[in-house]
């Protein structure tokens, strides 16, 4: 994946976000939250989405204000109560006391053009072998061979342990890791990588090399 270069770009984005957060200029709450997520790298927005998913016990994708605040607090994101209230009010358009989790995360993510979304979708579909809109170790066993992995050859790690380590890339810093990566979480991970790469063709190349598309 030319991972070293991708990691360098991600590190640059993290540092830029930290500098902007520290410049003392007032910011729109959702932009400030985006910067705080960026300052944590690729797992920032992903971690917040996972925190919300844990709280969405009935699968409705609706969060009340208390759940919304708890998700932000659990991630250790630094926002005033007034800023959280402002964001919640902006998304609770019908005034029923709840907001749609997916709509909020879409707004929080920086925009991505269609070609970038398409290549992310292709990568996800390749990994999601059984078509259930989530990636698990069972899916990966049908996609990747670990036979040439140094730690597999040495006996240090089993096949399942190596594949689980791969999934942990999407769970680093996230609450309650479960070894499952949903399509939304996959997008939330790569949206930050995308934001660190200006050139569409290079982002496309990064994804194709990472997933052998």
TrEMBL record:
Residue span, EF-hand domain: 43-78, 79-114, 115-150
Entry GO MF terms: calcium ion binding
UniProt xrefs under Pfam families: EF-hand_7
Gene name of this polypeptide: Dwil\GK10864
PROSITE patterns, per the entry: EF_HAND_1, EF_HAND_2
Name of the protein in question: Uncharacterized protein, isoform B
Annotated keywords: Calcium, Metal-binding, Repeat
GO cellular component term, pick one: organelle
Matches recorded under InterPro entries: Ca-bind, EF-hand-dom_pair, EF_Hand_1_Ca_BS, EF_hand_dom
PANTHER family: CALCYPHOSIN (PTHR34524), CALCYPHOSINE LIKE (PTHR34524:SF6)
């Amino acid at each position: 994946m030319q991972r070293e270069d991708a990691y360098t770009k991600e590190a640059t984005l993290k540092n830029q976000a930290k500098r902007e957060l520290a410049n003392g200029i007032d910011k729109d709450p959702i932009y400030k939250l985006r910067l705080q997520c960026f300052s944590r790298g690729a797992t920032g927005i992903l971690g917040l989405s996972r925190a919300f998913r844990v709280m969405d016990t009935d699968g409705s994708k609706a969060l009340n204000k208390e759940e919304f605040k708890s998700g932000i607090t659990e991630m250790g994101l630094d926002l005033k109560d007034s800023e959280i209230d402002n964001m919640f009010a902006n998304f609770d358009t019908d005034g029923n006391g709840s907001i749609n989790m997916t709509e909020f995360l879409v707004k929080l993510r920086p925009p991505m053009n269609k070609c970038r979304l398409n290549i992310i979708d292709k990568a996800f579909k390749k990994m999601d072998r059984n078509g259930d809109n989530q990636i698990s170790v069972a899916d990966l066993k049908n996609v990747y061979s670990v036979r040439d992995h140094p730690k597999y050859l040495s006996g240090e790690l089993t096949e399942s342990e190596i594949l689980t380590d791969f999934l942990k890339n999407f769970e680093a810093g996230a609450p309650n890791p479960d070894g499952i990566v949903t399509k939304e979480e996959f997008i939330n991970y790569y949206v930050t990588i995308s934001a660190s790469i200006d050139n569409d063709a290079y982002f496309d190349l990064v994804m194709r090399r990472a997933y052998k598309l």
